[in-house]
Design goal:
225 residues; 7 strands; globular
Length: 225
């Protein structure tokens, strides 16, 4: 992430170079983290609340960060939206699935999006199996979510233990379901080296139904009291 005084890639450039695309994903992850810090700092208790409630508050506080006069000037080109319906073949109107959070770069055309699916992580009621299962990561792998994207994100709402604990549980679960999650040979769980983005990991998955691989960033957000 670019802090004040550092060089920022021009959002209006027309080519989608790898550095440019990575910058957008890094910005999206940074904004989510900034929103989470602002949410926790406000005193809102997210320790034992539903996923939808956290997502709503996280979206609200991330947009508050973006609109704050104290946030970096580059943030004005982004907005965060929750519960965005996915346009996929065979689904119309209210039958379309909704993805939890979308970070949208509006400062250029076409708009660039990074889509996030969120899952609670809490022992014993919300185990890692749901995070890597059909209604979590599996929605991306099936092509139900982000079918036209090459990168997406998973958000882990940590409500027990800590980020380090779940950073060990998730790859163990992925390895046990290697065939189901279609991990690529070079896409094993590893730390994401992104400036000012902590507790973030990445994996790469095949998506046989749409024949398009997907890079997934896994961002762990601590809501433990």
């Amino acid at each position: 992430m670019v802090s004040p005084g550092q060089q920022k890639i021009n959002i209006n450039q027309s080519n989608d170079s790898s550095d440019y695309v990575v910058s957008i994903h890094r910005d999206a992850l940074y904004l989510i983290i900034a929103g989470q810090k602002k949410l926790v700092g406000s005193g809102v208790d997210c320790f034992d609340v539903d996923e939808e409630d956290i997502t709503g508050d996280l979206t609200d506080y991330t947009n508050k960060y973006i609109n704050s006069l104290s946030s970096p000037d580059w943030t004005k080109h982004y907005r965060i939206q929750e519960e965005l319906r996915e346009n996929v073949k065979g689904k119309k109107g209210k039958h379309r699935k909704r993805i939890d959070i979308v970070c949208i770069l509006t400062g250029r055309k076409p708009h660039q999006l990074m889509k996030f699916e969120a899952k609670r992580l809490k022992r014993p009621s919300f185990p890692v199996g749901e995070y890597v299962g059909k209604t979590g990561l599996g929605e991306f792998i099936s092509g139900n979510y982000a079918p036209k994207c090459d990168t997406a994100g998973m958000l882990g709402y940590i409500q027990s233990d800590d980020c380090g604990y779940w950073a060990e549980q998730i790859p163990d679960a992925l390895n046990k379901k290697k065939k189901e999650v279609h991990l690529t040979k070079d896409g094993q769980w590893q730390k994401a080296s992104l400036e000012n983005v902590n507790d973030c990991y990445k994996t790469r998955h095949g998506r046989p139904t749409i024949k398009r691989e997907l890079l997934v960033y896994h961002l762990l957000l601590d809501f433990v009291r």
